[in-house]
Amino acid sequence: MLYHKKLLKYIFTGIVLVFCWFVLHSIIIVVAGTQEDTMDADVGVIFGTKNRKDGSLSKSLIRRLDIGLRLYKKGQVQKLIVSGGMAHQGFCEADLMQEYLLNRGVRLADIIPDNTALNTEENVQNSLEIIKAGNYKRIIIVSQYYHISRIKLMYHKKGFYNLGSASSHHYGKDYRYLTLLREFLGYYYYYFFK
């Protein structure tokens, strides 16, 4: 009986410690993701997200594009990489993003589409290939605030450190806890296994 009580105590302590770790990491994700570093850069990298079933842009993707557009119009970036492949209903995220930016005055020559990336890791890898080919020295990543820490980790693990960030601070009430849990698990999965 004493053995079972000790075992339950250890299990309970472990659960509490993991929960505290999750809460602390989530606070770090939120703080790090909402502190923007938008010093001038060569290029902005806008990370795609699912479009709607009818092919229109989701609100979160429009927010990301508007941030990239603001950076471009202020002269803080000279070019924009739009990254996202055929992720939903046969519509290419990068093509939809490019169209949105073109309709708002960004020159075609200043938009670099990556239409093959299907996840964050591919977004990072493909953008690094574009950055290397274009000899770009500094970038600003654009995504949701909760995504920034994991994106930075991916760039750092691939040896690229000269990056800033700008993020949409909006989140849907239905997804905030699940999103933070996904980012927590994704961060450590990538940290330890990639």
What does this structure look like?
By secondary structure, the chain is of the alpha/beta class. It has one domain (2-193): Rossmann fold, CATH 3.40.50. It contains 6 helices and 7 strands, in the order αβαβββαβαβαβα. It has helices at residues 2-34, 59-73, 93-102, 120-134, 148-157, 176-193; strands spanning 43-47, 79-83, 86-88, 91-92, 111-114, 139-144, 163-168. It is elongated and about 75 Å long. It starts with a helix and ends with a helix. The model has no long low-confidence stretch (mean pLDDT 90).
Count of helical stretches: 6
Q: Average the pLDDT over all residues and give the rounded result.
A: 90
Percent strand equals 15-25%
CATH topology title: Rossmann fold
Keywords for this structure?
single chain; 194 residues; alpha/beta; Rossmann fold; five-stranded parallel beta sheet; 7 strands; 16% strand; elongated
In short:
The chain has 194 residues and is α/β, with parallel strands linked by helices. The chain has helices spanning 2-34, 59-73, 93-102, 120-134, 148-157, 176-193; strands spanning 43-47, 79-83, 86-88, 91-92, 111-114, 139-144, 163-168. The strands form 2 sheets. The chain has a 5-stranded parallel β-sheet with strand order 5-2-1-6-7, with helices on both faces. It has a two-stranded antiparallel sheet with strand order 3-4.
How does the SSE layout of this entry go?
Blueprint: H1 2-34, E1 43-47, H2 59-73, E2 79-83, E3 86-88, E4 91-92, H3 93-102, E5 111-114, H4 120-134, E6 139-144, H5 148-157, E7 163-168, H6 176-193
Parallel strand pairs: 1-2, 1-6, 2-5, 6-7
Antiparallel strand pairs: 3-4
Helix pairs in contact: 1-6, 5-6
